[in-house]
Structures are given as structure tokens and as C-alpha cells.
UniProtKB/TrEMBL annotation:
<dbReference type="InterPro" id="IPR002347">
    <property type="entry name" value="SDR_fam"/>
</dbReference>
<dbReference type="InterPro" id="IPR036291">
    <property type="entry name" value="NAD(P)-bd_dom_sf"/>
</dbReference>
<keyword id="KW-0560">Oxidoreductase</keyword>
<comment type="similarity">
    <text>Belongs to the short-chain dehydrogenases/reductases (SDR) family.</text>
</comment>
<dbReference type="GO" id="GO:0016491">
    <property type="term" value="F:oxidoreductase activity"/>
</dbReference>
<protein>
    <submittedName>
        <fullName>Short chain dehydrogenase/ reductase-like protein</fullName>
    </submittedName>
</protein>
<dbReference type="Pfam" id="PF00106">
    <property type="entry name" value="adh_short"/>
</dbReference>
Length: 280
């Protein structure tokens, strides 16, 4: 399905996966509505996209998804400028305080994680369905960026709140899909594994040693890999829902089993790829 005439609202669009999805969908000439808290980053991204794609329509709003009133006002305001919202990419989210166990977390970090990953995730959905009129139109797609942690709970100690919030997103996705029976609204889950974005640095409080230990020996995804997966899901026709898609680094066999020898074997992998290239 062409995304050319589609209007796509992306939460958490100022960097990482959300920004990569914006860039990917700009290539398809979708009209973009970009939400995040950082107005400056959104402005830079919007300028970049409009310079690269003549005539591309990009709307930005500095919105904290934890603030239901701000979010619903922003969607009400935007809907007066675009005729409709065809797609919500529900992507804003974060993990804080790892590797602390639950009782050792700062209470504010718990509030921010649940406020963003649970409340904000539902507020964005609610605003697009109601103020954004997706429910009244009975057409559209809600693509929830959840996580492999949402399914593989309980994974490892240290991220009780983040993992619980992602499991909640999975449950919400499944129930909403059934509640919207009788409409042509698709509700999909895109579950990334480890992606090298600000997320993992922030997750461990920007502690370089913890970050390096977590990423040791394997190649994580980059945000563009997840954006390609999102474009694949959105590109299906009305009849087909890619209901859920796990996109993970090959070395991430599960949340507990990482192939830390992946990089060591890289030379062999490169040599084989080159010999195939030569043979073609
Ligand atoms: N990276 C991974 O390995 C990974 C794996 C699985 C799932 N995910 C999920 O993918 C999504 C995106 O993560 P990412 O890797 O792209 O992280 P990121 O690079 O840190 O980007 C997170 C985005 O969310 C926005 N955001 C955070 N809190 C917000 C709030 N309260 N209101 C509005 N926007 C907010 C941030 O913008 P501002 O700071 O400007 O608001 C930013 O644009 C998250 O839901 C995350 O749980 C990531």
C-alpha cells in the first residue's frame, strides 16, 4: 500500500527509532506529524526532511505524552490543519535506573516510566482515536512500538518497571485490536530487540562501562532497521495485518542469551559475503 497520501503521527520522533521512521516515511512522501518534548530537535529534523524532500508536509509539536491535556489539545489543533490522521506510530518511551532492582529505583523514575510508557502510550491512542477522529472514520493503523521484553517477561533482574510497562503495552495492543472490531482500524505491535540509540545509554544513566558491558561482542540493530520493519508493516494492503513483528539483532537469541562471539566471527562472515559477491 502506498504511504504517499497518508498522514502519520509519530510520538517520540525527535531521535532514535521515531526519527528514523520519520525519515523512512518521508522517502515515501507521507505527511508527517512529529511529537516529542524537545522542540529544538524536532525543528532540526523537520528542516532536514523538508530540505531533502521538496513539498513534504511536516508538522511538529513539543508535547510531553504524560500530559493528557497537552496531548489532546495538540491533536485537536493538528486535525484542523490536516484532513485526517491515517497512522499513529505510538513510539515515545524510555527506561530509567537500570540495573537497580525495583525497591532501589528513584520514585520519580518509576513515575516517569509508567507515565510515559503506560499513561502516555494510552493517552496518545485515545487522542488519535477521539480528537484525531480515527474512530469516527473507522479507518487507520495504530502501530505500537513495544519491545521483545514485553513478551519475554520476566527476563532478567533490574528493569521491573520497564518490562512491566512493555508487557502492559502488549496486553493493551491485543485488547484494543479486538475492541476495534467492526472498524477498519489495524492495531499492530512492532517489537524491537536491542537497538543502538540514546535509549540504552539513558537506561543505565549514561554509565559508559555498563553500556559497553551490555553491548559487548555483538552488533545491535540501528534505528533504520526498525524503520524498515515499520514501513513493511504499514505497506500491507487492507486485507493483511502484520499483527506483530519481532525485529532483533541476530546475536540476540533471547533476552537472556546473547551470542557474544558474534563480532569475533565477523571476519568469516565478511569473507563469505565477498566470495558470494565475486561469484555473482
Ligand atoms: N532502543 C532499543 O533497544 C529499544 C528496544 C525495544 C523497544 N524500544 C522502544 O522504542 C521506543 C523508542 O526508543 P528509542 O530507542 O528510539 O529511544 P530514544 O532514542 O531515547 O528516543 C526516545 C524518544 O521518545 C521521546 N520521549 C521520551 N519521553 C517522552 C515523553 N514523555 N513525551 C514525548 N516524547 C517522549 C524522546 O524525545 P524527547 O526526549 O525529545 O521527548 C525521543 O524522541 C521506546 O518506546 C522504547 O521503549 C527501544
Amino acid at each position: 500500500m502506498s504511504l504517499k497520501s497518508q498522514t502519520v503521527l509519530i510520538t517520540g520522533a525527535s531521535m532514535g527509532i521515531g526519527a528514523a521512521i520519520a525519515r523512512r516515511l518521508a522517502n515515501e512522501s507521507a505527511t508527517l506529524i512529529l511529537f516529542a518534548r524537545s522542540n529544538d530537535k524536532l525543528s532540526v529534523l523537520s528542516k532536514e526532511l523538508q530540505e531533502r524532500h521538496t513539498g513534504l508536509k511536516v508538522y511538529t509539536r513539543a508535547v510531553d505524552v504524560q500530559d493528557n491535556t497537552a496531548l489532546s489539545n495538540a491533536v485537536s489543533n493538528i486535525i484542523q490543519q490536516v484532513s485526517q490522521i491515517d497512522v499513529l506510530i505510538n513510539n515515545a518511551g524510555l527506561a530509567l535506573g537500570a540495573p537497580n532492582a525495583f525497591p532501589d529505583l528513584e520514585i520519580q523514575d518509576i513515575i516517569t516510566m509508567t507515565g510515559t510508557n503506560i499513561n502516555g502510550f494510552m493517552f496518545a491512542t485515545y487522542a488519535v482515536l477521539n480528537q484525531g477522529k480515527m474512530k469516527a472514520r473507522g479507518r487507520g493503523t495504530i502501530l505500537n512500538v513495544t519491545s521483545t521484553t514485553g513478551l519475554e517477561v520476566p527476563p532478567f533482574p533490574g528493569e521491573a518497571v520497564y518490562h512491566a510497562s512493555k508487557a502492559c503495552q502488549e496486553a493493551f495492543t491485543n485488547v484494543l485490536r479486538t475492541e476495534l472490531t467492526g472498524t477498519d482500524i489495524k492495531v499492530l505491535a512492532l517489537r524491537p530487540g536491542v537497538v543502538a540509540t540514546n535509549f540504552h545509554e539513558q537506561r543505565v544513566g549514561y554509565d559508559k562501562q555498563s553500556y559497553d558491558t551490555f553491548m559487548k561482542g555483538f552488533e545491535p540493530l540501528v534505528a533504520e532497521d526498525v524503520a524498515d520493519a515499520a514501513a513493511f508493516m504499514l505497506g500491507q494492503g487492507d486485507r493483511v495485518s502484520v499483527k506483530a513483528l519481532d525485529v532483533v539483532p541476530t546475536a540476540q537469541r533471547s533476552l537472556q542469551v546473547f551470542d557474544r562471539e558474534w563480532n569475533e566471527r565477523g571476519e568469516g562472515r565478511r569473507a563469505e559475503a565477498m566470495s558470494v559477491d565475486r561469484a555473482v
